[in-house]
Amino acid sequence: MSTPADFPVPRTCPFTPPDSYDAMRAAGPLTRVTIPSGKRAWLLTRHTDVRAALADPAASSDARNPDFPALGHGEQQVAAELRPFIRMDPPDHTLVRRMLVGEFTLKRTRALGPVIEQTCHEQLARMLSLTPPVDLVTEYANRVSTTVICHLLGVPTEDLEFFRSITTVTGARSSTAEQVGAALNDLFALINRLVDDKTANPCDDLISRLALGPLERGEITRSSLLSQIGITLNAGHETSRNMIPLAAVALLRHPDQLAKLRDDPGRWPAAVDELLRYLSVADTITLRVATADIELEGATIPAGDAFIPLLGAANHDPAAFADPHVFDIDRPERHHVAFGYGVHQCIGQNLGRLELEIALRVLTDGAPALALTEPFEELPLKDTSAIFGLEQVRVSW
Amino acid sequence: MNAPRLRADRARCTGAGQCARTAPTLFDQDDDGLAVLLIPNPPVEALSQARLAADLCPSGAIALHGDLPRARPITE
């Protein structure tokens, strides 16, 4: 028998998951692959199976399991040690998730609307004061996403640049375990100091509430609290930073869809969900081990095996979405899994939606002549990143 | 004939907020992030929203029981 093909595979088109997913999906429910560690894992590519497997109680996210199919160098070691709640199982996961989820309710998220709006206007004005061409990733998306998540958590403005430098290392799949470890040490030192500062002088923010609530009541250890704040900061920033420029390029390349949004801004929420489905930047983020046999339609993931339900493959399954490779903001289907599925579904999804909508609306309204200054085909792809994105998007206006 | 009936199992709720987002007349989200069922017996005009909320709930906390009109594709 031949060696299973290597995974992950790079994208063919920057907008859509790798073309090879279509062939895998057509061939059968499970595809055996070899991951960078040399271990084997099953890929799931069908929407029904991806949702069923992610909702199954036997789908373990625990990175301490030696069979956990980490894709990045050093990722498993770091996750097993720090235990961010995205890599935990119930009941530990439930405890942490419940501490955090009140910070991300629809009401709380919507209350952030004016702050996000102001941030986007300020950052766009700053970008437009520069001489084009400028990089949309560095000069707009990264500045918006770090400002918003730091505001929510309570990271002071003077620490923003330091935080931005840390995330450059932690967000790259090419970083070594040592590099990630050093960057995380810096991040944890920052969060540790903030927990002290806010215990002494509480503010109206997430870190203050966790420090004075669960930490003081002894419901969470200090080291776990630092891990959970760290993953929230990182995940909340990296996703938006990658999505905003990629989505902006997708809109520029689909002027008919952008014209509909200019005519009727009420269509933005639907457009954002379609961008999330179409681009699926977190395609390979859900990594699991089966703790018991998991039954799918026409196949079984055997107990003990590692598997990766591919969110992008599910979101481009023609059985779930008509003409899946077409970007259509009027698409009726709503059940994409861009934020995952099951108990781990993205805790910050409502913030993500709102941030994406405002950042794209402010950008396309405020710079109506926005255009790429280099050929679309030459945009550098972040194929080594855990969250897909573009390294750089040089624009003029 | 059993009238359609909604259930929100707060023990299973993971606080994603999908129900309150997609069916705000039927569900709310409390300050702890958990689902709150507002209308256990959805009127017929709210059934497509109820069905969407049940389908999108990632943790299986939202369920729609009873005799339902023939299911249509999950859209709004």
TrEMBL record, chain A:
Q: Which GO terms describe its molecular function?
A: heme binding; iron ion binding; monooxygenase activity; oxidoreductase activity, acting on paired donors, with incorporation or reduction of molecular oxygen
Which branch of life, at top level? Answer: Bacteria
Q: Does the keyword Electron transport apply?
A: no
- Among its keywords, does the record have Oxidoreductase? yes
Q: Which InterPro entries match?
A: Cyt_P450 (IPR001128), Cyt_P450_B (IPR002397), Cyt_P450_CS (IPR017972), Cyt_P450_sf (IPR036396)
What are the entry keywords? Heme, Iron, Metal-binding, Monooxygenase, Oxidoreductase
SUPFAM superfamilies (alphabetical):
Cytochrome P450
Q: Which PANTHER family match?
A: CYTOCHROME P450 YJIB-RELATED, P450, PUTATIVE (EUROFUNG)-RELATED
Q: What family does this chain come from, according to its entry?
A: Belongs to the cytochrome P450 family.
Q: What protein name does the entry list?
A: Cytochrome P450
Question: Per the UniProt entry, what species is this protein from, by scientific name?
Answer: Nocardiopsis ansamitocini
TrEMBL record, chain B:
> Which co-factors does it depend on?
[3Fe-4S] cluster
Instruction: Tell me if Cell membrane is a UniProt keyword of this record.
Output: no
* InterPro entries, sorted: 3Fe4S_ferredoxin, 4Fe4S_Fe-S-bd, Fe-S_cluster_ET
4Fe-4S ferredoxin-type domain location, by residue? Answer: 4-32
What Gene Ontology molecular function terms does this protein carry? 3 iron, 4 sulfur cluster binding; electron transfer activity; iron ion binding
The answer to whether UniProt assigns keyword Nucleus to this entry is no
Q: Which UniProt keywords apply?
A: 3Fe-4S, Electron transport, Iron, Iron-sulfur, Metal-binding, Transport
**Which Pfam families has this protein been placed in?**
Fer4_15 (PF13459)
Q: What does this protein do?
A: Ferredoxins are iron-sulfur proteins that transfer electrons in a wide variety of metabolic reactions.
Its recorded name reads: Ferredoxin
Protein source organism: Nocardiopsis ansamitocini
Q: What is the lineage of its organism?
A: Bacteria, Bacillati, Actinomycetota, Actinomycetes, Streptosporangiales
